[in-house]
Amino acid sequence: MSPAQPLRIGLIVNPVSGIGGPAGLGGSDGAAAQAEALARGSVPRSGSRAERLLRALTRQGVTAEILTARGAMGEDAVRAAGWEPALVLPIPEAGRPTTAADTSRIAAELRPRVDVIVFAGGDGTARDVLAGTDEEVILLGVPAGVKMHSGVFARSPEAAAGIIAASGGASVSHPVEIVDIDEEARRNGRLNSRIYGRARVLGRRGSTQGGKIGSTAETGEQLGGIAAEVDERIDPEAVVLFGPGTTVRRVSEAMGFESTLLGVDAVIDGELVGSDCSAEELARLTEGRRVQLVVSPVGGQGFLLGRGNQQIDERVLARVDADDLLIVCTSAKLGDLAGGPFWIDAQDPSLIERFAGPRRVIVGRHHEAVVRVSIA
Amino acid sequence: MTAHETIPATITAEERAETAERLAQAVEKPLLRRYHAPRWDEPLIFQLSAEGHRGIEVPSVPEGSVDGSPEAAFRKRTPANLPQVGQSQLLRHYLRLSQETLGADLNVDIGQGTCTMKYSPKINERFAGSPQSVHTHPLQDEATMQGTLQILDELQSYIAEVSGMDAVSLQAGSGSAAIYGNVKIVQAYHADRGEADQRDEIVTTIFSHPSNAATAKTAGYKVITLYPDENGFPDLDALKSVISDRTAALFITNPEDTGIFNPRITEYVDAVHSVGGICVYDQANANGLLGIARAREAGFDLCHFNLHKTFSTPHACGGPAAGAIGATDALEPFLPGPRLTRGDNGYEWAPRREKATADIRPFYGVIPNLIRAYAWIRSLGAEGLRAVSEIAVLNNNYLLAELLKVEGMTAPYAEGQHRLEQVRYSWQELTDETGVTSSEIGARMADYGMHYWTSHHPYIVPEPVTLEPTESYSKRELDEYIASLKHTAEEARNAPDTVRSAPHRSGIHTIDVDATTDPETWATSWRAYRRKYQGEDQAQVPRWEAPQDLPVRPRAPKAHHR
Question: How far from the centroid of its chain's Cα atoms is residue B303's Cα?
Fold first, then answer.
């Protein structure tokens, strides 16, 4: 492409991406999970994330041609954001739920026609896009999934627009791994990722959110210290929500129960009142009570909210005082994150503004670090 | 022209200099040394013991000739269980062990960043080893040791001058002991004001020495650690967000381990003072500051120097070293240990004061090291101390400029700026490219007779190496270190297995770290070795035993430097 030509963006929206998150399903892969998520009241949000990207592109004055697929797989978001698609690929049997195969097929058709494929989805979507293309394809993920361990995602739709604006016509890219949760490791109580392939991601290294770094053997003593510190701060009257992840699970174990590795649990005065809760269940359990929230950053990415714990939605977050967000992190994980910042992401960023800024993080018994928390 | 050709008499001075340099280069040794350490497989001294062997033959005394003497009262009835070894075997044993070390006098020690040992002039050993030093007993009358006390008094005044502080204590036997002394001074100061219970938090930074956090915890404080902002400085907004009337003190280093001087340090000090906290300057990284910047003028209330680092005395394998605590007049009453005074009868130890904190160690400091530091300062003078720092900074920035030319190495933070006395570099790009880690490169550096250290844990700079050249090393020696690092980086690309399996030419191969850090397997004495590894049944010393219902804490895996 010569510099005079507008950037050709292939846009794919995975309409069901992320709906398993608020439903507490830990992911959205498979028709059964998607049906269950919809039954639990989850609302698809990937389309609106794509819209946010396109509106941000407009604000930044980016000139581009958008090639996309029909309806919820892109066209709706493009038109809603005030853009006119240059090409709309058809989807056979319109009206049926879209599948992983649709994503792969659309990606394959877009591949020779565009400079970069931008998709709104999660790790599963990234795998499907890769399956339809090759390792030389240039991608950029708009974070809309439940967990995003691949290094292909921008931190937010607006950050994705910034990467596109600064990319110089897709001339800058770097290699990343496309990964997804290792189900076998998860069954064995560990949260690890498995590599499914490689691709190139638009922009300079460091501009995206980075790939998740799996949990290392964290010291029992340090985790015990963190647990003791958390225990001291727990209000027996409050409902305490334990977020996902290995660090939080180890803390919960030291406190006498085992939290769900990819879910959110609720405890009142030491008693487990909800396990692997959906957004609806959390909204019900937290109504009218003080809410304390124990979370740990995603290793290598630093996300506290909005990655893998979308069931902690706006209704719950509105009930959490800034001081009741209890952030736990081992010093080794914090070191891997170069001391921060930590990131938070929500559908409505105004709801989480009060969590931003320098925050105390529990790193051990009588030991805190101060880490800057930023809105993605 | 060859070295054997004659230089014509008509050439100019410039031509003569150029020719001389060329001739010198013709005989120059390559920078990359073909080093190989001796490996002796030397047994333990106890394993060399043979019945009846003696180092010296002591004449026997007639039975009963020492009866009634003081010696008889102290004499042990059973001989100590010491190895029996001849004098020449003993000499060979320790010479061999010494050949298997990379001591500060043997290697280019710049890879010991944050802890590089500068040269300790040998002439100072004559003072430290003189009878007036080694034959002094701490309990003897002050009147008989006026010279030693004068040295201590003057050394205190020199350290006060260097730091700008009003008073100095030389009692601590190491840097960490001095930091602990400072924590106790902070505690005593707040207790004196009735705020000890309220002020239960100490703030420090991740790029300051971990002993700041560790000693604060030991003294019962809650510790808050600041992490770096995007410029590598401790986040000032983060500090302001956590200080309050609970803040007892800020313990901070400047420059931190990155070697970047923090020009806004007074803002940190002012912020902590505004809530009633004490500001303590850990001067571990003072090698680039002597005669240039002083703790007191940045507003600090307390500071400490490692005399074994900045003032040339030996580190002595982690002790006995020497730490000097400096305090303002307001905190002087809380200084630990006995205090010297000078009256009509000369120097005396003053009566113990009511507010003084507890002694950090018995008596008053490690006297031989204090004499070495005194001699070093006296030999340099004020201008010499400043020259020491200027040369240390120059050496460091030469090293920085050359190492940034090595592909795969970066110096995170403060891009394009000069550093002070050291730099924490990163091999992340090389590791991304080759998979070879910084610690593996460190093991390979031992094959060139070079020491190499990564960083304190946790690693904030990824794949770190911390280098501090001090003023002691010549340009040639820095070039040798640079050449060895550069060559190792090339090996990581071309022969990664050679690096991963290093060291190959070192005296000792990599050790099983867990075996030496696990209380179940370590043996720190011959007696423990016999019990743990030879199954010897030994009478157990009565010990405290944990109650049955006491929860057993899982033991943490150790974070290893290598």
Answer: 16
A371 near B CB under 8 A: yes
Q: Residues 6 or more apart from A312 whose CB is under 8 A from it?
A: A241, A243, A264, A279, A282, A293, A305
Residues of chain A below pLDDT 70: 1-4, 24-29, 94, 182-192, 211-221
CA distance A296 to A326: 8
B458 in helix, strand or coil? coil
- CA–CA separation, B251 and B244 (whole Å): 15
Task: Select from B227, B433, B463 the residue whose CB has the most chain A CBs within 10 Å, as the one to mutate to test that interface.
Answer: B227
| Residues of chain B found within 8 Å of residue A372, distances taken between Cβ atoms | 229, 235, 237-238
Residue tagged 């005082």 (tokens): A321
Task: Measure in Å the smallest separation between the Cα of A363 and chain B Cα atoms.
Answer: 9
pLDDT, one tens digit per residue, over A19-58 is 777 776 666 667 777 777 777 777 778 899 999 999 999 9
Q: Residue A338 and residue A302: Cα distance in Å, rounded?
A: 10
Residues of chain B in contact with residue A221, where contact means CB-CB under 8 angstroms, are: 553-556
**Beta carbons of A370 and B225 less than 8 Å apart:** yes
Using the structure block, give the residue that is written with the tokens 């610690």. Answer: B439
Check if the beta carbon of residue A303 is closer than 8 Å to that of residue A376. yes
User: What are the tokens at A78?
Assistant: 């493009």
What is the DSSP pairing of strand A303-305 with strand A325-328?
unpaired
User: Which residues of chain B lie closer than 8 angstroms to A229, CB-CB?
Assistant: none
Across the range B499-517, mean pLDDT stands at 81
Residue B369 · residue B321 · CB < 8 Å: yes
Q: Which one of B241, B460, B557 has the shortest CB-CB distance to A338?
A: B460
A371/B221 CB distance under 8 A = no
The beta strand positions in B57-126, using DSSP E, are none
Strands A271-274 and A265-268: antiparallel
**Cβ contacts of A369 on chain B, cutoff 8 Å:** 206, 224-227
CB pair distance less than 8 Å for B457 and A335: yes
- Alpha-carbon gap, residue B273 to B239, rounded angstroms: 12
Which string of DSSP letters, residue by residue, matches B523-562? --SHHHHHHHHS----PPPP-----TTSPPPPPPPPPP--
pLDDT in tens, B444-457: 999 999 999 999 98
Nearest by CB to residue B227, choosing from A222, A336, A369, is A369
CB distance from B61 to chain A under 8 Å?
no
Judged by a CB distance cut-off of 8 A, whether residue B551 touches chain A is no
Unique residue bearing structure tokens 């100490």: B202
Using a CB-CB cut-off of 8 Å, the residues of chain B touching A206 are none
Q: Does A221 contact B at CB distance below 8 Å?
A: yes
Joined tokens for residue A148 = 């995003």
Alpha helices in chain A (DSSP H): 31-39, 46-59, 75-80, 100-110, 123-132, 157-165, 183-187, 220-233, 246-254, 279-286, 314-317, 331-336
- Across the interface, whether the CB atoms of A370 and B227 are under 8 A apart is answered yes
A172 in the Ramachandran plot: left (φ > 0), alpha (ψ -120 to 50) or beta? beta
Give yes or no for a cis peptide into B338 (omega within 30° of 0).
no
* Side-chain-side CA neighbours of residue B426 (13 Å): 14
A340 shares contact with chain B (CB less than 8 Å)? yes
Burial of A230-254, coded b for 16+ CB within 10 Å and e otherwise, reads beeebeeebbbbbbbbbbbbbbbeb
Contacts of B238 in chain A (CB under 8 A): 358, 370-372
Whole-number average pLDDT of chain B: 90
**Which residues neighbour B345 within 8 Å (Cβ) at sequence distance 6 or greater?**
B143
